[in-house]
User: Fold DegT/DnrJ/EryC1/StrS family aminotransferase from Tamlana crocina.
Amino acid sequence: MPGFELFGEQERKEVNDVLDSGVLMRYGFDGMRNGHWKAKELEAELQNTLQSNHVQLVSSGTAAVSIALASAGVGAGDEVIMPTFTFVASFEAIMMLGAIPVLVDIDDTLGLAPEAVQAAITPKTKAVMVVQMCGSMAKMDALQNICKANNLLLIEDACQAIGGTYKNKPLGSIGDLGCFSFDFVKTITCGEGGAVVTNNKAYYTNADHYSDHGHDHVGNDRGAEGHPFLGYNFRISELHAAVGLAQVKRLPEFIEIQMKHFNIIKSELSKIPEVTFRTVPQGGEESYGFLSFFLPDLESATKVSEAFKQNGVDACFHYYNNNWHYIRKWEHLKNLKSLYPISKEVKDGLKYLQTKDFSQSDNYIARNISCLIKLSWTEEEVKIRAQKMAKIISEVLS
Ligand SMILES: *Cc1c(COP(=O)(O)O)cnc(C)c1O
Assistant:
């Protein structure tokens, strides 16, 4: 998945444009910048790639998720439904606003289970945050219907799924707002960076102002701009945007390589009857950034994961024991370790985490292994890797 694997001349040229002008900031300094507007150009490219009317670049994917929620008016005491399997950033982005993360089970897509979402709705629910994990997607039709019927926002975290589609729409462009990350290990990298994507003009305007101290960006004198509301600094720099601009132009090439590598490994593992694969909803097309498969039980998945590590099959994750991506090991969040006081309302709202049954999620994550699909492998390396993986799995299962 990582764009940093294929990195070179184009990235260097875009960064040098910025260094030559000396304007490292995305706003203002019109006279000095030699016509270079890398953040604006990247936003235009992303509008096209993501078939969305509006794109706001920001400083990270975590910022993007929090800004998306804030732009649609989610705040103190509101409940946001999110999956048990994601990245800690989902939880953090909700907490930053004083809102309450409500974790619910996933299904065989490795995304939000629609029935679990339905069951978690209360009068305080404002939004459903679907996370398109490991390059594929949740059951989007069912989730959209639930949101429509209950008047809830659908926020789509597509940080790991750029290049994937559902019914020909880019992942990240389906919800009311979509979020992307361009951190160092994502398919497209800026070093650090993120984006909020929407077709809603008001949400976009809010995101634009909120991510730059509430500046209204009217006219070209920053000192004279109005400040319609409170904002913070979640800006991206021109240097970061320049890297992303070179990378985004290569997205079709990256997806093609991922698909090729993915299919070689999948066809080899498909020969083993006990191995099954995550469900991709009908009409969905993965980004092929990961190959996610299931083994019969926790024991076999644990053994396969260990044997992969011992035999040099890197970049495969058994998330059951991972403390970044799955609720089971989020001790600091379950016990709400915070540097500063958290409101009583949020503390009370999170008490359910001590007792809620997530056995449905456990059942999938315990048996799942997800392998990163790298861009830099040669076809020969992928074939050898696929055979090695199949051999290890067969040995463990025999
Ligand atoms: C990477 C990631 C984020 C956060 O992005 P950063 O740019 O690292 O802040 C959020 N959600 C998911 C699913 C991610 O994989």
